[in-house]
Amino acid sequence: MDIRPTTDQDFDVFVDTMLAAFGRFRDALPGGGLWWAALEMDRGLFAVAKDGRPVGTAAAYSFDLTLPGEVLVPAAGVTCVGVLPSHRRQGVLSALMRHQLTELRAGGDFLSVLLASEAVIYRRFGYGPATRTQRLTVPRHKAALARPRAHGTAASAATGADTGSVEVLRRSECGEILEEVYDRYRRAQPGALSRPHRWWALGAGQPPVSPSPRYVAVHRDADGVPDGYASYALGDPASTLTVDETIAVDDAAATALDGFVLGHDLITQVVFKNVPPEHPLRWRLADFRAGQVSDDTDGLWVRLLDVPRALTARGWFEDGELVLDVDDPFLGERSRHLLTVRDGKADCVPTDREPDLSLDVSDLASLYLGGTAPSTLVRAGHIRAHHPGAATRADALFRTDRAPYCLHWF
């Protein structure tokens, strides 16, 4: 079995091989968008059988990932990983993933990310779930918003006092607005990925990136500058309003957009397809039980390719020291690091000191963005704490000021 890079000339064969691995066909998304249109063929891989036929695929997109502390770093977005049914359980997937990780590291990447089709596949390759997402359904007759209880100018702003306006546009009328607002949002949201311009231009993705027919509620601030949007459609069933995503740069815009879709006439319920677990909307509702949570699942999976570079890249919110003994069985590596944080910056160096925590690189990935507390994985039996205070110290150190979240689909 050989692994070789792909070129632009391989595009059609690559897509057909990848789709065959998933039993899919070349169906265009409504509106003409093709989700694979933004593939970067210079970052693709073929697994090739002895007769020269491609039997497996893997690729990567070039993204920026927002880390805690509003730090933007490059991250490889792994995608299109598949093996033909005729060649599964023969080591093809492992060969592809090992080759890709080695190549990414050699090219200077220290982080890679992916969305997992199945949760049991990618941990063995060193990936760990780092964000979560949910679906939230609100019956229209229970959709009243509570009056904010905080007082004062600053408190009112934080709880959603709005001096802006909402305008309804068609998706085809506001592409530039969507792109600009999303870019403002993702720069401040840990776990968020960039959406390069070519994705919007090619309609490569799910709505509202794709040109599928949608209405878009655009929120503008008091100066008329767009600072939020909600992409939505009615139907399936006809009385349901489904929100693809709500993007807002502050809570005032988010509250105004939530109120707008919840107040829509001729519907019986509003479905928010993708919201973070700690979304404040449930607390904004007068009836706390009105928001029904479903499809609570993993979102972005993270892989650390260079532990010291990754740990020193993100921002930190607590001073302290921690010795981490990190095992990377897939790449056959084990290393021990002294992590020292002072004034929001970290230093990470090799050490022979006794460890505070021993953990798999996939578990470190789950801690990395701050979405999972180290003590949770200690209690789950995945991380070993070497003394009673280790988990508490690690919880304080890895704490972030904002929960990570990623809703970009790739």
What's the arrangement of secondary structure elements?
Elements: E1 2-5, H1 11-21, E2 45-48, E3 54-67, E4 71-83, H2 92-106, E5 111-115, E6 128-129, E7 132-139, H3 153-158, E8 165-170, H4 175-186, H5 197-202, E9 215-220, E10 226-234, E11 240-248, H6 251-262, E12 269-275, H7 281-284, E13 292-298, E14 300-304, H8 307-313, E15 320-328, E16 333-342, E17 345-350, E18 357-360, H9 361-368, H10 374-379, E19 384-385, H11 390-398
Parallel strand pairs: 4-5, 11-12, 15-18
Antiparallel strand pairs: 1-2, 2-3, 3-4, 5-14, 6-14, 7-12, 7-13, 8-9, 9-10, 10-11, 15-16, 16-17, 18-19
Task: Note down, in words, how this protein is organized.
This protein has a 7-stranded mixed β-sheet with strand order 1-2-3-4-5-14-6. It has a 7-stranded mixed β-sheet with strand order 8-9-10-11-12-7-13, with helices on both faces. A 5-stranded mixed β-sheet has the order 17-16-15-18-19. It has 3 domains: 108 residues, Gcn5-related N-acetyltransferase (GNAT) (Aminopeptidase); 164 residues, Gcn5-related N-acetyltransferase (GNAT) (Aminopeptidase, 3-Layer(aba) Sandwich), CATH 3.40.630; 91 residues, Nonspecific Lipid-transfer Protein, Chain A. With 410 residues, the protein is of the alpha+beta class. About 2% of the residues have low confidence. It starts with a strand and ends in a 12-residue tail after the last helix. It contains 11 helices and 19 strands.
